[in-house]
Amino acid sequence: MTAPFDLTDDSVVVIIGTGAGGGVLANELAQKGVSVVALEAGGRYLPQDYVNDEWESFGQLAWLDGRTTSGDWRVAKDFSGLPAWIVKAVGGTTTHWAGASLRIRDHEWKAKTHYGALEGANLLDWPIDGAEMAPYYDKAEKKLNVTRTNGNAGLPGSNNYKVLEAGAQKLGYKEVSTGRMAINSAATEDRPACQQTGSCFQGCKWGAKWSSAYTDIPAGEATGNLEVREKAHVLKIEHDDSGKVTGVLYADADGNQHMQKARIVCVAGNSIESPRLLLNSASSMYPDGMANSSGQVGRNYMRHLTGSVYGIFDKPVKMWRGTTMAGIVQDEARHDPSRGFVGGYELETLSLGLPFMAAFLDPGGWGREFTSALDQYENMAGMWIVGEDMPQETNRITLNTDVTDQYGQPVPNVHYSDHANDVAMRNHAYDRGQAIYDAMGATRTLPTPPYPSTHNLGTNRMSENAQEGVVNRWGQSHDIANLFVSDGSQFTTGAAENPTLTIVALAIRQADHIADEMGKGNL
Amino acid sequence: MSHDFRKMTRRQLLSRGVAVGAAIVVGPGFIAGHDGAWASTMDALKPETMATLVQMARDIYPHDQLADEYYVIAVKGYDVPEAVDETEAGISALDDAARAAGHDSYLKTGWEKDRVAILRGIEDTEFFQKVRGGLVTGLYNQKAIWPVFGYEGESYSQGGYIDRGFDDIAWI
């Protein structure tokens, strides 16, 4: 069969979501000759469609369906209906991501072993490690054409980077560079070189940044084995009397509902929607939700430590010019409990345009303390803290039955409270970040609270033992053999690195496994 | 924001206006800048209410280098019939708070620090939070003010910054 596929075709693999996980998995399977139907809740936008205007782009790309929040995180107060800043579009959040492509470190794969028992933290070792993942990271770095791998040059340093680099070096930091970025430092056959345009978060209008929207998705479609259905919002996964999944119920752009049969279903809707879908797929056989015999579906929600530091100088920086996140200090990413916390963090360059700076610098803030900082916008440098936050069972996605979405389904509630380790690490990072800018003569520094989450992780976590998590080492659910999870919700722990490269590497590996098992007749 | 502010200018009416605040003239059916540089006709709100709202907006997000017209544009959305009751009530409460603090009205409270103290007293109200929240986009998403802050907006149409100073910092 070649695409398009019939609703009744039960030989297809159905993938829900087309971002770093689903989009890559769809292409990898299609390249192997597997028939794939990818259902994407959002529409299709390509570089010519992206708008490099913050609010307009937000309206075009962001996932704005209803969500609620709770917990002591400030996002619940300041952005109560917007816990996450992620994308609803073909390509998912790979349209919005900034491109930082880092491998998880050896100690982070085994967080419980290295960090020990931590009160309130639901730590666990991943069932896989860096050695097992190395060949897949190699493939992922090649696919994304990551700088400083495969002989690629690094990106040149922007003004914002130069401030970070010089300040970090004054403090004695050694691991300072423009980082490993999935943004072309030189043109390739399918992507031009970075033109230092800024606006990376609004979608790269050059297509210099890797996004599954204009790489893996069209490559998969070109095989004839992949059909992407846009504006197809999946409502429920169905199963038969034996418990195996048989297909998915989805609503199309007009709200009409369809049932797509499936041989295998792979869930890749990001760490909020993926557990929500499993919970909304509860049945008499699975009263607590699908794949949830462990009770871990939706739990251990992680979002990275985050926080930002902005420094104001007496001279211009113009931080918005150039690649947004091509700048990193990695010395603090080590595990060194003498600092007062376990795990580590990365410091990465960041800039927001004036409109988003006004929205995110100090949400709810007003008066001259606030506006005198914005007055110095041109003289600001900025960095983002990406640190490992602790998995906690009580930080979780649940169904909020008091609020329903446009399909009448309960919306997800995102509950998050900082662990004491998170607070200690963030305070350390604020201090170091401020010291970097102080070393460069900053006249004022601003320790800025976390934004709505972009790194949503851990809500269908991978575990060796079926009682401790939702999926096994392949992302296959412990409970149902032909149900997989293919996004960042698989993460056992969050590590300190931007997660996209790992999501891509896991998807490549999962595609190998699924194709193998299909070939052997096991799936 | 799509208001063409210059088309709303009614300089000929300025002489009939009454100066109430430091910089805003209130006339029948309009408010205007003291220097005649701008004016805005009122569709629904009382001109005094609009003038107070503009001062409130400036006190919430004070940028001395921004002319009043940008604050007027930022709050002009309240000058519609469906927002009148809530806005008039909110500004009336603000004036009550000013009088309770010993002033004639909010607009006639001469020092910013005194007006800010009045605002601090009502900052948990729905009205204050609505006005403040609306200003975050209503003020800062006006492209016309971006150059005042040095922000250059999108650069794709000019080929990015690769040949236009992405790394031109001179003081490091």
Structure overview:
The complex is a heterodimer of chains A (523) and B (172). Chain A is of the alpha/beta class. Chain A has 13 helices and 17 strands. Chain A has helices at 22-31, 54-61, 75-78, 106-109, 111-115, 130-144, 159-170, 216-222, 270-280, 354-360, 368-374, 420-438, 500-519, and strands spanning 13-16, 36-39, 68-70, 176-177, 226-229, 233-239, 245-251, 257-261, 264-267, 308-312, 328-329, 345-349, 380-387, 396-404, 410-415, 444-448, 483-485. In chain A, the strands form four sheets. In chain A, strands 4-11-12-13-10-16 form a six-stranded antiparallel β-sheet, covered by helices on one side. Chain A has a five-stranded parallel β-sheet with strand order 5-2-1-9-17. Chain A has a three-stranded mixed β-sheet with strand order 3-15-14. In chain B, helix 1 crosses helix 2 (68-75) and helix 2 crosses helix 5. Chain B has helices spanning 47-60, 68-75, 81-100, 112-122, 126-138, 146-149; strands at 18-19, 24-27, 30-33, 39-41. Mean pLDDT of chain B is 88; it is low at 1-17. Chain B is elongated, with a radius of gyration of 18 Å. Chain B has a four-stranded antiparallel β-sheet, covered by helices on one side. Chain B is α+β, with helices and mostly antiparallel strands and 172 residues long. The interface between A and B is large, with 43 and 36 residues.
